[in-house]
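User: Can you write out an input/output pair for a complex, sequences first and structure second?

Assistant: Here is one pair. Inputs:
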Amino acid sequence: MPKLFPVQEIGSLAKPKWRTKGLRQQLSSQDLSEAEEWATKLGIQDFHDRAKSIFKTGDDKMRVKAILELSTLYGLRLFEIAGVDNEGVGGEQQRVEMYEHVIKAVQGMNLLGHVHSFDNKYFNKGVAESKISRKHPIYVPEFLDVKKYAHRDVKVPITGPYTLVDWSFSGYYIQKQHASSPKTRRIEAKREFLLDIVEQVIRPEIRDLVDAGASWIQIDEPAVTTHPEPQEMELFVEAWNETVKGFNCKFSDHTCYPSEIGYKVLSEYAPKLDKCDQLALEFANRDTSRLGVDKDSREGYGDLKHFVDAGFSGEFGLGVAHVHDFTGNVSSGAGKSVGRDFIESPELVRDRLLFATRIVGDPAKIWANPDCGLRTRTWDVAFAKLANVTHGAELARETYQ
Amino acid sequence: MSPEIQLAGIHPRSERLIELTRSYERAKASWSQVEVQLGQETREVIKLQESLGFKHFSDGSLDWQDQLRPVTRSLKGVESGTRYSRWFDTNTFYQKPIIVGKISAGDIDPKNFLRAELLTEKRGRKVTLPGPYTFSQLSENKHYKNYADLLFDIAIAELEIIRRLKNEGVTLFQLSEPCLVYQPYRESFRDHSEVEQALGAIRSLVREKPGDFLVQTYFGDAAPLLPDLLDLPVFGVGIDLFETDVSSLSEQEKTSKALVLGVVDSRESFVENPNWIAATARKFSEKVDARDLVFASNSDLKFVPQGIANQKLEALSKASELFEESR
């Protein structure tokens, strides 16, 4: 019998200071003191040898490569020690950010500057200035490092084509449209831009990843439910099916922070997604912070039923840990609120998993994960959250054993 | 007189301010450093409006973390801080207000709404607030059994905020009501009885001095609703020309209201040509004979980088001159 409630990471971890600084300039031993501390916690035996070679090299490219490799190793070990079963690519340490990392590798696109996302978070928004194509591999170098160091299963999260297009200005693609209505011009431009991203950028990348040995690719599509109109959803399905066509690989979708009806809308289209073995969704953000397996206590998980009712038969990656700032009240036994962080207790994670199992009907279909990447939390907080997710999954498992 | 130009919401932060707020998050900069930069950039936004001939000045709301938050934090009966929701169909988010008790005005600190000390007293001051309908729609209601009660309590509480802001010299309030025309978060679009309720709440909010208010719609087609909006006792009504089907408007609608034309797209980086803006406004005025026209972006310019936002404002200014020359 396969392990019930396996735990997976879902995206990025924060970048350590030494990783960010080391990409720009030579590091001092002081800069690596934090890395040394974590090396002990994470059991990185050859830290001092690696540090020496980072200090020694005068070649910027070599230093950057060594730092990216080391931070990937740290991310992988953090996940392993926290008990995570599928450790992804070690917290996406080799990517600037999920959007910008891809856009920088696309010929014909230009980053225009940062725009506000929420609070003090921003993203660098790009525009298509001409027909697009892939300049160089996007995720493959990272995957090769991951393969070298991972002790557990891995998957490669990639940013989905629909999201890349939705978060970009369509520039070249909209200016070449001739329809008189701005709305029609926008949708026609989007379709052309989207299919170009699929064919010219994403499929070549997946081909390279699969050739390099990737067996599970998570396609991140947070933007998909933001336009719940049928025309947009059909476009998403068309792009997805085109993306995965012909590849022998497990695919999963990760969609988070939808509008109120976003998951209901996605549920109607999920069964049409070819080869989509798992949907990893965000629920903790909308749930209460009290224990219980009743409907009221677990109000955040109600949308799961839409997917079951619509006939999606794959697995669910269940968001059981909040990843953003939290300043609300926490009931007894459900965890603790520390500053702007909420550390869910294992019991709260357990209750969320058990409630979801009632809806889905089969515990073997449920994975436990944070709502999204933990990049906005410190490593201490990310570790505490993941350790409790792992422990909570164990508690849920005990119920079935 | 050439059409007035106005800011229609939150202006984008500069790369410098963005970097500073990020440093603050990483505990590498103090909040007082951020405040100094915020003050400097607010002055620059005001200066830009001066140079472009604005009549009503906004401070750009550079410190607003989302379009609802200053209002949320000024109300009793509302909690926030646990849940983020997507702002319509954009890649931006807001802290969702959770209605947990009867809503009333709480501690209102005008400084959370505008930097009055940086705005000249000689010119009009404009503040953009979420309208009561939009605020109620984007909240999670855990208290009210009757939706109308929620809606009107928000309006009453917002009236208190408006009174306080009038003491700070604000002369024009934009009530943003995108939910009247676009509801991607709902399964079924609102019906007309809900529109009546929403307009009723707006009427109750503007009753003391209707001439101080604009009701702005965006992200959706305002054409079916325009006659109702024009019936509101307000100074003006705003529509998003990138979403509104102007061809469906009845011929030669005449109104004593000002029409705010959202004629540059805050969701595209392409800077509109002033000739195109002026021609689009001319076509619109052939359909609707408005007392005054105001040129603006269709919504907050925060969706584009600051350099592009500033160019779009310059394009509006130039277009206003071109429009006037051709009249």
